[in-house]
Amino acid sequence: MGVDVELIRVEQQGTSPRRRHESQVAAIGDVQFHLATVLERVQHQGRTPMLDRIDPYGLLELTSVEMPQFLGELAVLVESAEGPGEERILDAVRRLAERCRDGAALCLRFVGD
């Protein structure tokens, strides 16, 4: 069970969810379950409330406004990384999160299996 990460551009005119248009900007596939493994190792220990919301079977969207906190909690994951596979995927997630932080119309979506 991997957790894929998508960088999404959201365009919405008005408040109706029917007028929301999404386009994928970039994506990271967790095919070797590195992200899911390091998340499982760190979640629910009281240090990462935002990361604790990521469900390996569900969907979570974070906005650009939430990225500063997310990037801070991502540093906890980096400290817990074991091996180059986990380090590589966390670096890729960090790069997407930084892009999201810098773009008001972007969001980061975590997609569980």
Record the SSE blueprint:
Elements: E1 3-12, E2 20-28, H1 34-42, E3 59-63, H2 67-80, H3 84-101, E4 106-112
Antiparallel strand pairs: 1-2, 1-4, 3-4
Helix pairs in contact: 1-3, 2-3
What does this structure look like?
Helix 1 (34-42) packs across helix 3 (84-101) and helix 2 runs antiparallel to helix 3. A four-stranded antiparallel beta sheet has the order 2-1-4-3, with helices on one face. It is built from three helices and four strands. By secondary structure, it is of the alpha+beta class. It is 36% helix and 27% strand.
Number of strands: 4
Largest sheet: 4 strands, antiparallel
H/E element order: EEHEHHE
Helix content: 25-40%
Q: Mind telling me the C-alpha Rg?
A: 14 Å
Going by helix content, strand content and strand pairing, the class is alpha+beta
pLDDT < 50 runs, ≥5 residues: none
Tell me the strand percentage band.
Answer: 25-35%
Gross geometry: globular
Q: Give the integer mean of the pLDDT values.
A: 92
The total count of helices amounts to: 3
Strand arrangement across the biggest beta sheet: 2-1-4-3
The first-to-last residue Cα distance is: 6 Å
In short:
With 113 residues, this protein is an alpha+beta fold. The protein has three helices and four strands, in the order ββαβααβ.
Summary tags:
113 residues; four-stranded antiparallel β-sheet; 4 strands; 36% helix; 3 helices; single chain; globular; alpha+beta
